[in-house]
Write a structure and sequence with these properties.
single chain; Immunoglobulin-like; 5-stranded mixed sheet; 4-stranded antiparallel sheet
């Protein structure tokens, strides 16, 4: 498990860029950037929206998105090996605009790792049940597709879960061997220990610590259905059968007792 944590942290350090200010950019995949920023204090005025502007190269900044009150945004389907510049503005209720911060980040090569020519994608990520109960064994399934120039390769799949209390932990990792152009299945087993909403991240990490791709799945654990779905209905049936047998035995015994009394 120590190796897993080291790999995961290395990926975040390798695929991120931070410039002075409040905006941080992370490279999720070779052509996808995640932006994060802290809500600023604008003379005690209420912030209602955030605007993101960006540019590539020497062109002028253009409007990218209005995120409402969300302080995170994913910019997808970018060109490979290109530097992108971002500016985030806070919009107040009074319609004033204040610069939150600026950042820039370069996307990776399409092959993802220059040395090995691999490029991995998480084609899908699913959970066996979207609603379940405490103690149930859930399967977290994913499909991996290898691209790039190499005929075969290997990638680490990191399984990260967040429980209803917000506690996040890396639970497992698997090294998956792949062949170019073929889907490879991988599965993790997870047993929830409390009720509430769960969030699971699956991330593909190279041996050098590069984050190729990441997908998330969510599911809910309900106390209301736990007893019956965990086999409680079988117990109730058994209790009912025994109770029924007990009633029959009692009735038969009473009838026999009455017959003996009548004979006497």
């Amino acid at each position: 498990m120590f190796i897993v944590v080291s790999i995961h942290n290395a990926a975040k350090a390798y695929a991120s860029s931070e410039t002075p200010g409040s905006v941080v950019a992370h490279l999720n995949a070779y052509n996808e950037v995640s932006l994060y920023w802290a809500a600023p204090s604008v003379d005690n005025m209420q912030i209602t929206d955030y605007e993101i502007w960006y540019k590539a190269g020497s062109v002028n900044y253009v409007f990218l998105a209005n995120t409402g009150n969300q302080t995170i945004y994913n910019h997808k389907n970018l060109a490979s090996e290109k530097t992108y510049f971002y500016e985030v503005y806070a919009i107040t209720k009074e319609k004033t605009k204040t610069l939150v911060g600026q950042t820039s980040i370069a996307t990776a090569r399409t092959s993802c790792t220059p040395d090995e020519g691999w490029c991995f994608r998480l084609v899908s990520a699913t959970v066996s049940k979207s609603v379940s109960y405490v103690g149930d064994e859930l399967a977290i399934n994913a499909q991996i597709l290898q691209g790039g120039s190499s005929e075969d390769g290997a990638v680490f799949v990191v399984f990260n879960a967040t429980d209803p209390d917000g506690n996040q932990s890396i639970l497992d990792t698997k090294k998956i061997y792949t062949a170019r152009g073929e889907n490879q299945d991988v599965s993790f087993v997870y047993i929830p220990e409390k009720n509430g909403n769960y969030h699971v991240d699956l991330e593909l990490i190279s041996p050098t610590g590069y984050s190729f791709d990441k997908r998330s799945v969510d599911f809910h654990i309900s106390e209301d259905i736990s007893y019956y779905q965990s086999g409680g209905w079988r117990e109730l049936m058994i209790y009912a059968i025994f109770a029924g047998v007990g009633v029959v035995v009692y009735i038969v015994a009473i009838k026999r007792f009455r017959k003996r009394t009548d004979v006497q």
